[in-house]
Design goal:
Length: about 700
């Protein structure tokens, strides 16, 4: 009987299996999913969704369901390592934690003494949970060179919202009548918001999807799917604005009271006719008018834009042009439109203002050299309190404006950077590299010291998330091998470098208690002990109208169609109005006839961190290059045949998948794979001058069949 119960993984005294709670941290740091772990003898036997957890209510996506393989992967680092061979050779010997940390502290201090504190780069990959500590460490060390993956992630959206509204905004989907998902794909990418969207449809809402790809949402859920040519949306948004103005659909009273720069904007969009939009996007103008009419048909309609718009050389302005149609119709801070987001902790929206900013900035150095990217992307620094990492490789190679000598790489994935192979190679320019990761990566192979990091199962974590929740979990299982968590590594370094930063050195628990002051939580021990989510007592539910009643955080104090912040930089060729720019790609259209979109999300992968998980890899054929059957026929390419995808900077070899998902002339693939790395062929010069973002979702290539 016991055998059968064990086999069925039934929890209870007879089997010794107990259910422990944890939070999945594979994706979505701001919208966590709760996990029920079936644990016996401190080993996870099975993972299910935590039934009562507010975000996912017992449901899990494939990534969460595969988290046991993530935890027990053979690629996990288990002990500190010291490099004994050439950089990149993969030859290491084990050393003790004390020895490893001493070496790192000593090397970073040596570089600081010789070249100044800015010569050390403190880098953080996709993970968000240890960021405030790493950021504070950078500042305490005396520099602003704190670089994160957000240099290519949601920060361009944060910039765009802040540029227009002076605040980050979130769409109020449940209360909306019409939702236009414009370059966002929440059904796959933000599944908790995707659920809202399905509920919205069930409640009779109308969904428009604007996406060059035939997505599941476009096919199965949308009422209208507009399929513009990749990157042409700005013409459509500005033509819609022009149409809305001409038809008198604008909210004049709202504009008079709250908006800056309407006349200049009106003049600018007057050049964007429906005919021009049709010519550029390939969408009949009647369809554009149909969507514009739907958009103005009720007060509670909204545009839900996404990162799909920002990953291109004119991505920031494209995103802003889409937001602008919300502005002229007064669809802000009213039910079913946009509401401001209050991020509390590690990008988690807790609905109250904690003290994360003070934690990070109280020790911010005043007189130091400019952070990476400052000379090239000045606008970034008006909105984002980090260096712009897409300028890292250039500065590393040229030493301009000053040399970079040391790197602390926390979860650094070189494959997220354009021309990644060259990026990886340039890491050799560093005198000293420390890497921490969960898995042994190629960046680890470049490091002098490699430190093994704990997974989310192995550490406790405090999170704030939607609907004013706070949760603080405990470690669910002991660490594999000799892993430590990143905050422990950071505080140990701080101590050994004698930075005299008491709050930082006090560690994770003290930092959380400090940053969550203001939450109204009086008994943190009880919160931590229970591990259950609670509503923060001081978090206020959003009240429509509260944002409009207050001063906006822009130069004019109003919502800006014409950005006074952008106008501060006349020498950088930036336009204060969201006009369209021509693609700045020099690639010859004859030689490189296809537009490639890389990194449109797939449900069974997230970036590079899941590439070693066979349970996830088995769910799709990736990496593949997706190509329209008509194009494939012209090129004589059949399903699964090997092809080369070629750009001016390189080529990758991978099988073809014939699919209508991409229109003719457009192809696509997912990023993050070792065997076919999309970013190895993306020119590093293709950067958005406003945000510094790479052109992940739009560059030119050619496809050649492999001759066998
Ligand atoms: N399963 C899974 N989920 C994820 C991730 C993952 O890797 N896997 N990554 C997470 C991360 S880090 C992020 S930043 C978010 C991103 O999530 P989103 O903000 O939704 O952004 P993307 O997935 O980059 O792009 C969304 C859509 O934009 C479309 N798009 C691309 N170019 C254009 C264009 O020119 N015009 C229009 N109209 N649409 C365009 C794409 O086809 C895609 O369907 O997803 C998160 N969720
Ligand atoms: N072509 C293309 N490129 C893209 C994109 C695209 O759409 N197309 N999207 C961009 C976007 S939006 C993003 S967010 C980035 C992805 O950002 P990346 O930083 O590339 O994301 P990952 O590969 O998930 O994670 C980086 C590393 O962190 C490690 N790691 C995971 N958890 C921890 C931890 O707790 N501690 C430590 N020390 N390490 C940990 C992982 O093992 C991995 O090696 O990629 C960008 N690059
Ligand atoms: Mo991202």
């Amino acid at each position: 009987m016991n055998e059968q119960l064990l086999k069925a993984k039934i929890p209870g005294e007879e089997t010794g299996i107990e259910i422990r709670h944890s939070l999945c941290d594979i994706c979505m740091p701001g919208m966590p999913c709760g996990l029920d772990l079936y644990v016996k003898d401190d080993k996870i036997l099975k993972v299910e969704g935590w039934k009562e957890f507010p975000g996912n209510k017992g449901k899990l996506c494939v990534k969460g369901a595969a988290s046991r393989e993530y935890q027990y992967s053979s690629a996990r680092l288990t002990q500190p390592l010291k490099r004994i061979g050439e950089r990149g050779s993969g030859q290491f010997e084990p050393i003790s934690w004390d020895e490893a940390l001493d070496i790192c502290a000593e090397q970073f201090l040596k570089i600081k003494e010789q070249y100044g504190p800015e010569a050390v780069v403190w880098n953080c990959g996709y993970s968000k949970w240890y960021r405030p500590w790493l950021h504070r460490l950078t500042h305490s060390f005396g520099s602003l060179n704190y670089v994160t993956e957000s240099s290519t992630c949601h920060c361009a959206e944060v910039m765009s919202y802040n540029c227009v509204f002076g605040s980050y905004m979130r769409p109020q989907i449940p209360a909306a009548k019409v939702v236009i998902a414009w370059g966002s794909n929440p059904l796959v990418n933000k599944i908790n918001m995707g659920k809202n969207l399905m509920q919205f449809k069930e409640n009779g809402g109308t969904l428009v999807v604007i996406d060059p790809r035939l997505t599941q949402a476009a096919e199965k859920l949308s009422d209208i799917h507009l399929r513009p040519r990749i990157g042409t949306d700005g013409y459509m948004a500005n033509a819609m604005a022009n149409y809305i103005i001409e038809k008198g659909y604008i909210d004049q009273d709202f504009i008079d009271r709250y908006v800056h720069g309407f006349e200049a904007y009106k003049e600018m969009v007057s050049h964007y006719t429906l005919e021009l939009a049709e010519e550029k996007t390939g969408i009949p103008k009647e369809k554009i008018v149909e969507v514009a009419e739907l958009f103005v048909s009720a007060p509670n309609t909204l545009v839900f834009p996404g990162n799909g718009l920002t990953h291109r050389v004119d991505g920031f302005n494209l995103h802003r042009s889409v937001l602008s149609i919300m502005v002229i119709t007064g669809k802000v801070d009213r039910p079913g439109t946009y509401s401001p987001v209050q991020e509390t902790l590690c990008h988690g929206p807790g609905g109250f203002r904690g003290r994360e900013e003070e934690f990070i900035n109280d020790v911010k150095p005043k007189d130091c050299k400019p952070p990476i990217g400052k000379g090239h992307f000045p606008l970034w620094f008006d909105y984002i309190n980090e260096a712009q990492g897409t300028d890292l490789a250039r500065q590393l190679r040229t030493g301009d404006p000053y040399p970079l000598k040391g790197l602390a790489a926390f979860g650094m994935n070189y494959k997220m950077f354009p021309e990644s192979d060259a990026f990886l190679e340039s890491l050799k320019e560093f005198d000293f590299i420390m890497a921490t990761d969960i898995f042994h990566t190629k960046v680890c192979d470049m490091a002098d010291i490699v430190l093994p990091a704990k997974t989310f199962f192995e550490k406790g974590e405090a999170k704030c998330f939607s609907d004013r929740f706070v949760v603080w979990t405990k470690p669910a299982v002991p660490a594999v091998g000799d892993c430590r968590d990143d905050v422990e590594i950071i505080t140990e370094l701080a101590k050994r470098m004698r930075l005299n930063d008491e709050l930082l050195e006090a560690g994770y628990d003290a930092g959380i208690r400090y940053m969550l002051e203001g939450s109204g939580i009086t008994d943190f021990d009880a919160l931590h002990e229970s591990g259950e989510p609670i509503v923060a007592p001081n978090a206020k539910p959003y009240v429509p109208g509260s944002y409009l009643a207050s001063e906006k955080n822009t130069i004019s104090g109003k919502i800006e169609l014409y950005s006074e912040t952008i106008a501060k930089y006349p020498d950088y060729g930036l336009n204060p109005l969201p006009a369209c720019a021509e693609q700045q790609d020099d690639a010859d259209i004859q030689d490189y006839p296809f537009t490639i979109m890389t990194g449109a999300r797939i449900s069974n992968a997230i970036h590079s961190r899941t590439t070693g998980i066979s349970w996830l890899r088995s769910q799709s054929k990736d990496p593949v290059i997706k190509i329209n059957p008509k194009d494939a026929e012209q090129l004589g390419i059949k399903e699964d045949e090997m092809v080369f995808v070629i750009t001016e900077v390189g080529r990758i070899r991978l099988p073809a998948m014939l699919t209508e998902e991409y229109a003719e002339g457009e192809v696509g693939m997912y990023h993050g794979f070792d065997e076919a790395n999309a970013n190895s062929i993306l020119p590093e010069t293709l950067l958005d001058p406003y945000s510094g973002f790479p052109a992940f979702k739009q560059f030119r290539c050619r496809i050649e069949k492999e001759e066998v």
